[in-house]
Amino acid sequence: MAFLLVSAFFLAAQTHGAPKEYSQQGEGVVLETLKLEIGLASNETENYSSQVKPPGTNRRIPQSIIIGVRKGGTRALLEMLDIHPEIVVAATEVHFFDWDENYVKGYDWYRNLMPFSYEHQITVEKTPGYFTSSLAPERIHGMNSSIKLLLILRDPTERVISDYTQVYYNRLESHKPVQVIEDIVIRNGALNTKYKAIQRSLYDVHMANWLKFFSLEQIHIVDGDTLIKDPLPELQKVERFLNLPPRIMSTNFYFNQTKGFYCIRSDGRERCLHESKGRPHPVVNSTVLEQLHAYFKDHNQNFYRMVNRSFNWH
Ligand SMILES: *[C@@H]1O[C@H](CO)[C@@H](O)[C@H](O)[C@H]1NC(C)=O
Ligand SMILES: *[C@@H]1O[C@H](CO)[C@@H](O)[C@H](O)[C@H]1NC(C)=O
Ligand SMILES: *[C@@H]1O[C@H](CO)[C@@H](O)[C@H](O)[C@H]1NC(C)=O
Ligand SMILES: *[C@@H]1O[C@H](CO)[C@@H](O)[C@H](O)[C@H]1NC(C)=O
Ligand SMILES: *[C@@H]1O[C@H](CO)[C@@H](O)[C@H](O)[C@H]1NC(C)=O
Ligand SMILES: CC(=O)N[C@H]1CO[C@H](CO)[C@@H](O)[C@@H]1O
Questions:
Q1: What domains are defined for the chain?
Q2: Does the model's pTM come out above 0.85?
Q3: Residue 193 gets which letter from DSSP?
């Protein structure tokens, strides 16, 4: 319930705000975003092509893609990058490279889902499922081998809990039975390593697939735990990575004490975000937490070596 309320607020903020350089989010598109966020698949993409094309603009395939990770803070990152006047963002999670039924539709279909942009602007798309897809790296490389990839990660154990929480609320919404997290994570006294949420947190395993096709220099990792606490420095690193002039300012953010997280202020629009979009996480049994930490430890070390950088994960 809390989740739906926050989403509704977020929607209102977007629809009533002044347009950035031109209106890139029709009402149908915003609704589509909400539907995707609450996990309802839909194919109403015709609406995009009926949008008015501002003079001098075109739809372009992305020069940068936020590839994941699911529950890593991809929505927050995209919304924060959208502050930048030289960045335009796709309104929906496109699932072009990870879903066969979309990939077969081809690049023109993909391009038609992108917003109108001026030539100097960078188009960014985010689909969190790409990072854990075994097909996405080769397919993205096939489209543009020099593309710049953004990957936002957070503590893998926290990510599992957030992933569980999202599924939990989705199931509640659709009146399906739910289980406490301990009963899913532990099977016959041992960690259930087949659990998809745990698999998705094996960052080293997934990263290895990307490094087969892309150099480390092409993949910028955003620290999702830091982005939520102190957005500006992480965003400035992204600006440098994308060779963009620094345009995102501390005045674009204000901390909401009640909510406990940052809200975005730009072009007269105010939007509040949260990594869990307002859904409270369960308190997880400490023994189970320790089992998760222990399981991810070696994978994390392996990941740090792979990317030549370490993170403050358990
Ligand atoms: C896609 O949309 C059309 C009409 O809008 C509908 O008939 C069709 O069932 C939809 N397909 C899927 C897979 O949702
Ligand atoms: C490929 O990506 C690079 C880096 O963002 C960009 O400079 C280039 O224009 C892209 N090429 C195409 C065809 O989009
Ligand atoms: C902060 O969040 C609270 C609770 O959602 C809300 O009532 C209040 O209007 C917000 N304040 C600002 C300045 O956004
Ligand atoms: C956590 O679970 C273990 C069994 O897996 C149990 O022995 C322990 O009492 C639980 N701890 C708490 C605080 O509930
Ligand atoms: C690893 O990172 C350090 C700085 O953090 C850098 O000096 C070094 O060249 C990097 N090594 C590789 C193999 O990229
Ligand atoms: C052309 C087209 O598909 N238009 C649709 C866009 O979305 C609105 C709201 O969802 C529909 O009412 C239109 O028919």
A1: 2-307 (3.40.50.300)
A2: no
A3: T
